[in-house]
Design a protein that fits this description.
- By secondary structure, this protein is an alpha/beta fold.
- 40% of the residues lie in helices and 15% in strands.
- The longest helix is centred in the middle third of the chain and has 31 residues.
Length: 218
């Protein structure tokens, strides 16, 4: 299902005939309609201009940006304020790049503890974790390289959402598709995964356009 309007694409193994696919879609129509409504009604931030007073999110917390301090690039959180310190001559794009770099560092720092917790439980290990901006995916995995890719936007969401994505992708090492076995494994290891998924989908989206031409996972 693709943001922002919820266009639906069905992926199925070649061995499954069209009648079985139609039946599966019909059986999932209530869930599909609910997910489309969530995407269509999701709150979207206005375009961020990297100016003091704007709202930005860090791990699910709504913070007020302050760019009034100048000096070497650094980012810090104090109370409800997100301090972005940059050289005085930085423009909007440079300030945005500095903040994006910080989000990536935040996400990278949070992942090792989650892998240490969940890899022994699930019985699968990721050889590498890549943090990369993806317009249509929160996360994905590559079986050949045993790598997991995570969207740095996850650093703006509740930490529960990142944990859900990590578990989701680790289980994909066992079962590639979102079939009954995949659902069974998610239910076994993370019984509240649907609530976490919905929390992630209900969180405010960035103002940028989502590319409807690529596959959306998780």
């Amino acid at each position: 299902m693709y943001p922002p309007v919820g266009r639906v694409r069905v992926a199925a193994p070649h061995r499954v005939d069209e009648d079985a696919i139609r039946l599966a879609v019909v059986q999932r129509l209530p869930w599909i309609k609910k997910q489309r409504e969530q995407l269509q009604n999701a709150e979207r931030q206005t375009e961020r201009r990297m100016l003091s007073g704007e709202t930005h999110y860090v791990w699910g917390q709504r913070l007020r940006l302050d760019v009034s301090r100048h000096g070497r690039s650094r980012v810090s959180v104090a109370g409800k304020t997100l301090w972005l310190t940059t050289p005085a001559d930085y423009d909007e794009d440079q300030r945005r790049a500095a903040l994006d770099h910080w989000y990536r560092k935040e996400l990278k720092a949070a992942v090792p503890a989650l892998l240490a917790k969940w890899q022994p439980i699930i019985g699968e290990e990721a050889a590498k974790v890549v943090v990369r901006h993806m317009k249509t995916k929160w996360g994905t995995c590559h079986l050949e390289s045993r790598s997991i890719w995570l969207n740095p936007e996850l650093a703006k969401k509740n930490p529960r959402c990142l944990e859900y994505i990590v578990v989701h992708e680790l289980i994909h090492f066992i079962e590639r598709t979102h079939n009954a076995r995949f659902i069974e494994l998610m239910n076994l290891h993370m019984p509240d995964w649907r609530a976490r998924r919905d929390e992630l989908n209900d969180a405010p989206l960035s103002s940028e356009e989502w590319d409807a031409g690529a596959r959306h996972e998780s």
